[in-house]
Amino acid sequence: MATTRIDCDIHPAVGGTRTTLLPYLDDHWKEQVVSRAIDGLDLTSYPPHMPLSGRADWWPAKGKPGSDLAMLQRGAFDQLGASHAICNVLYGAQAVYDPYMAAAFCKAINDWIAAEWLASDSRLRASIVVPMQAPDLAIEEIERRAGDHRFVSVLVLAQGETLLGRRHYWPVYQAAERHKLPIAIHAGSQYRTAPSSIGWPSYRYEYYLAEAQAFQAQVLSLIYEGVFGKFPGLTVVLMESGVSWLPAFMWRANKTWRGVRVEVPWVDREPAAIMRDHIRFTTQPFDSPPDAAGVADIIDMIGSDKMFLFSSDYPHWQFDGDDAIPPHLPASLVSRMCADNPLETFPRLSLAA
Amino acid sequence: MTRHIVARTNDIPPGGNKVVSVDGRDIVVFHANGEFFALLNRCPHAGAPLDKAACVARLTSPEPGVYQRSRVGELLRCAWHGWEFDMRNGQSWFDPKRVKVRTYPVVIEDGETLAKGPYVAETFPVHIEDSYVIIET
Amino acid sequence: MSDVIDRPMLEQEATAKGRFRIIDCDIHPSLHARSDLNPFLAKRWQDHLKTYGDHLRTPYIGTTPYPRSSPLIARRDAWPPTGGPPGSDLAFMRQQHLDPFDVECGMLQVLDMFIFSQQNLEFGAAIQRAVNEWQLAHWTSREPRLKAAILVGQDDTPAAVAEIKRCAKIGQYVQINVSPRANEPLGRRRYWPIYALAEELDLPLGIHVGGYGGHAPTGGGWPSYYAEEHQSNAHSMAATLASLVIEGVPERFPRLKIVFIEGGFGWISSTMWRMDQHFERFRDEVPHLKRRPSEYVREHFWFTTQPIDEPDEARHLRSLIEWVGVDRLLFSSDYPHWDFDDPRFAFRTPLTEVERAKIFNGNARALYKL
A336 pLDDT exceeds 90? Predict the structure, then answer.
């Protein structure tokens, strides 16, 4: 058996609502989708044809990057060397305004992933796509999948309607904790409000940079709202967030907390300590310093080798060539992040050959 | 140990403080909940004067939205960056073992006892009808 | 936690290298009362100030949306004994800050009156002029160490341009200030007339954290707590840096100098790495950028140092400084705010004398042409 290397973030692509998802909708939604031509839910965050969305050599002859199972298998497993991979579907069901449509489309995505991907390749796992805009419906979807251990996490977008720490989301975290499902926060926006605190960006490049700050705000929200105190078994994975911003972010959080603790007295230890226990990162993109000394510094500053999870972000274009490991990572860290850390972070992973 | 008389107890109202100079150091004496506490008047973070700190309750919480208060007025929030220190033992909230303010033992003596000596008079005339704050360095 | 903090004060003062004159790039003077502006306002606006007052994209008249950690965001020992809010009394500012730290120059940053965020644009234009005049009348004419900035509400760009021209003729202002939390990201074309004028006048563009442009303090929505909102200032600065670079402001205005004030500097290096890492992926979206983003940052941007980061290990602070580059850093205290940096203790990592001279004096001297 090949070395265990768990790719924690790959992206099978939904071709369309009227095509890919139609078989998995009930009669009401089938009729709505067909008669009203409801389709085109690719997120503004990820135009399917922009270079980042699909590396040139990962484009199938027809369809979007990530839509072809065989090609994805060749890429993620053969070429990039994964032994297992977690599928995170970014099609915009999570962003639909109508909560019932959102729930129906999320369910369809999960049914489709299970039937056409997980059933076809035992190396594949998936995150449960949920409609966070209706937390009770999100819980229903979690409960629906809880018995299927091929679903290993719950997927939410980095920018939704409100910050993720807010109390109306807590029942979702309770369900996730109970079923040992980490919350996977993935880059992507519902575009409800400006995706950045300074307003609406002009360029996708600019938007993509702002995503890093959105992740930071979500981490602070989860910590300061007390989510990890209430749900001590909960883990949160930041996917496609960038990693090198973490040290300065940790220090600023600690600095602020020391002075403003009285506002949030249920946060009983430093934010950085809570992050080391509860927050994990996929490693693509890393946003690396340009040299080995800088990378070593960043790893040292982060202060925990448990936080890193191998990912390729296939088919997004984050690197060239066959090596998805960011440059200059120490070998000991690489082996942890490929196997031990994913197994610890996603307890439902089981590695039947 | 040298005993220094630094104030009459009446000089420091409840909830108040007084800064005194002892051996070239500024020491702040707080009066809280019937007791007196003496600390070096300098925050170990960046030197802020602790006599300007906010005196607040010791605040803990078992879960979001629940605020447990105790020892009201005995915690200091530093005047600059808001670090919390326990008046009683000088310990910071966030790292009680490694970050603390120097504290000094305080004794309250009445004038009659003091009149018998020994003490360092500083600038204090001692009247037997008053009681006095004594700091030991 | 480094052992520096446990050493007694006297030893720290003795070992802090060289008492040299510092240039403090962020000092906040305050109005004693809003009526202090009346001499600089037409009657109509004096009345408006008393009646309708501010109209901001925030819920409250009398307070910031997120209650602060201390009254008026200030150090508790900075209230002048003669009365008035922290920062309102020049004599006390001299006594508490300018003299003991031997401040050679202090850059004024007026936050009162929310000049950058007033919805009533005529009112905004009136008060920005009043505040710009007040700075000279009450502060810089009385205290030559203090330097005024031309503050302009960027969202009424024509009025901003007119005010900049007016102030530039007077010639006593060292920079032009706008807010990073404007109605749109600062890189957007609607603001370019301000940058063109700043470049033409050879005045740095100062961008101080804060403002109420109407967007949530984070891209994910509204935080519940000041603890979150306070840290979101750094996020806004990172997003503003991206906007300015990516929209091509330094490319289009190659002589423009931009100063980020009160954002700190810990976030800068990872932002530059991220910008550079993804530049190739998005290059075809931004063909107007002729150089790598980090090159623009290193040539056109300066950053005041407060609030300084406080890693547990001194050498980590050293790394942050080296990654950004000593030449980019301008010491600032943020007097009289609560998270003020004391110039004696803020840098808990050894600096060479040359580095210290640059950060505390030389970089600002050259940038502001003092």
Answer: yes
Listed in sequence order, the residues at least 6 apart from C51 whose beta carbon sits closer than 8 Å to its beta carbon are none
Contacts of B61 in chain A (CB under 8 A): 265-266, 268
Residues of A in contact with C288 (CB under 8 A): none
What CATH number has the domain spanning C3-368?
Answer: 3.20.20.140
Can you list the domains of chain B with their CATH numbers? Answer: 3-7+16-130 (2.102.10.10)
Among candidate residues C356, C354, C311, the one with its CA nearest the CA of residue C331: C356
* Helix, strand, or coil (residue C338): coil
Report d(CA C367, CA C370) in Å as an integer.
Answer: 8
* Spatial distance between the Cα atoms of C260 and C247, rounded to a whole number of angstroms: 17
> Are the beta carbons of C221 and A297 separated by less than 8 Å?
no
pLDDT band with cut points at 50, 70 and 90 for residue C186: very high
HSE, side-chain direction, 13 A CA sphere, residue C289: 27
Show the DSSP H helices in C171-206 as ranges: 192-201
Q: What value does the mean pLDDT take over residues B4-17?
A: 93
Q: Supply the pLDDT for residue B112.
A: 82
Chain A hits for C339, Cβ within 8 Å: 259
CA distance A94 to chain B (A): 28
Residue A315: asked if its preceding bond is cis (omega within 30°), the reply is yes
**Chain C positions in Cβ-Cβ contact with residue B47 (cut-off 8 Å):** 9, 12, 342, 344-345
* Among A208, A214, A248, beta carbon nearest to C267: A248
Structural domain boundaries in chain C? 3-368
pLDDT in tens, A186-217: 999 999 999 999 999 999 999 999 999 999 99
Q: List b or e across A202-228, with b for residues whose CB sees 16 or more CB atoms inside 10 angstroms.
A: bbbbbbbbbbbbbbbbbbbbbbbbbbb
Q: Half-sphere exposure of C346 toward its Cβ, with a 13 Å CA cutoff?
A: 23
CB C127 within 8 A of CB C54: no
> Would you give the end-to-end CA distance of chain C in angstroms?
37
Contact assessment for residue A234 and residue A183, using Cβ atoms and an 8 Å cutoff: yes
Q: Is C14 exposed, middle or buried (0-12, 13-18, 19+ CB in 10 A)?
A: exposed
Q: Give CA–CA dist C70/C288, Å, rounded.
A: 46
Choosing among B55, B80, B100, which should be mutated to test the C contact, i.e. which has the most C CBs within 10 A?
B80
Amino acid at residue number C184: E
User: Which chains does chain A touch, 3 or more C-beta pairs < 8 A?
Assistant: B, C
Nearest to C308, CA basis, from C264, C348, C260: C264
CA distance A346 to chain C (A): 25
Strand arrangement of the beta sheet that strand B84-86 belongs to: B54-60, B68-77, B84-86
Substitution target from C225, C294, C296, C324 for chain A, most A beta carbons within 10 A = C225
CB contact under 8 A, A225 and B64: yes
Interface contact flag, C75 B98, Cβ < 8 Å:
no
Q: Is the pLDDT of residue A34 over 50?
A: yes
Q: Which two tokens stand for residue A216?
A: 């930071």
Reported as a single tens digit per residue, the pLDDT across C62-98 is 899 999 999 999 999 999 999 999 999 999 999 999 9
This prediction has a pTM of 0.95
Pair of tokens at residue B136: 């030991």
Please indicate if any CB of chain A lies within 8 Å of the CB of B56.
yes
All structural domains of chain A: 6-345 (3.20.20.140)
State both tokens at C308: 């300084």
Sequence-distant (6+) residues with CB within 8 A of C143 are: C90, C94, C98
Structure tokens at C214: 């109407």
User: C206: Cβ–Cβ under 8 A, 6 or more apart, which residues?
Assistant: C107, C109, C149, C175, C176, C177, C178, C259, C261
